[in-house]
Design brief:
Blueprint (H helix, E strand, L loop, with lengths): L9 E5 L6 H14 L4 E5 L5 H10 L11 H25 L3 E5 L2 H11 L4 H12 L6 E6 L2 H7 L12 H16 L4 E5 L4 H11 L3
Parallel strand pairs: 1-3, 1-4, 2-3, 4-5
Helix pairs in contact: 1-8, 2-3, 3-5, 4-5, 4-7, 6-7
């Protein structure tokens, strides 16, 4: 059992596409349950009926919803985040459960802020309203280069994944700067095997 009390805590995984954050979130959920924790796992965008509807638009296939503006994209993420926070995350935390989420507040700041060029303070303000001030207790940034991310893409891409490598470089740089300013965030080297990364995550949580 961990020496860190993880009951009622929110753990977020962040990173650019194909970094392995969702895989690591799933692995941590399994490890926590094996350690005796009651765990809720969720994802953004998504996690609720309304969130999944937003996800279908923002992560649609290239060519679909091509008229979607960066501002509209941001608002769809915020809609998903608000619903996920109030319907799934907060009730679980209040019940003393551990919540693991793949993407949360930091993703919008990195993608729509650093990537799309929307004012960062404006995004942070929207995040505050969408989450009612809720922040992760621990954020793991699974860090890989934009070039590695592009090389890893072997399946059908969504409308964000097909962005030019420069876009993903800006997003990655954004993540690194955001983590550097967050005392509850940890950078994990994602250019390793999933087992090595999972062990690193567990070590930080004293699992």
């Amino acid at each position: 059992m961990s020496d860190i009390v993880l009951n009622g805590k929110l753990i977020a995984f962040e990173g650019i596409d194909t970094s392995g954050k969702t895989t690591q979130a799933r692995r941590l959920v399994t490890r926590l349950r094996e350690s005796g924790y009651s765990v809720v796992s969720t994802v953004e965008p998504g996690g609720t009926v309304i969130g999944e509807a937003a996800r279908a638009i923002v992560l649609s296939k290239p060519g679909e919803h091509s008229a979607l503006l960066p501002f509209s994209e941001l608002l769809l993420f915020m809609i998903s985040r608000a619903q996920n926070t109030y319907e799934v995350i907060r009730p679980a935390l209040q019940a003393g459960m551990t919540v693991v989420v793949s993407r949360y507040r930091m993703s919008s700041e990195a993608y729509q802020g650093y990537g799309r060029g929307i004012d960062l303070e404006f995004i942070q303000s929207l995040n505050e309203h969408a989450t009612d001030g809720l922040r992760p207790d621990v954020t793991f940034l699974i860090d890989i280069s934009a070039e590695t991310a592009v090389q890893r893409k072997t399946t059908e891409h969504d409308r964000i994944e097909i962005e030019a490598v420069d876009f993903h470089r800006r997003v990655r740089q954004g993540f690194l700067e955001l983590v550097a300013a967050d005392p509850h965030a940890v950078v994990i080297d994602g250019d390793r095997t999933p087992d090595e990364i999972a062990k690193d995550v567990a070590r930080h949580l004293q699992l």
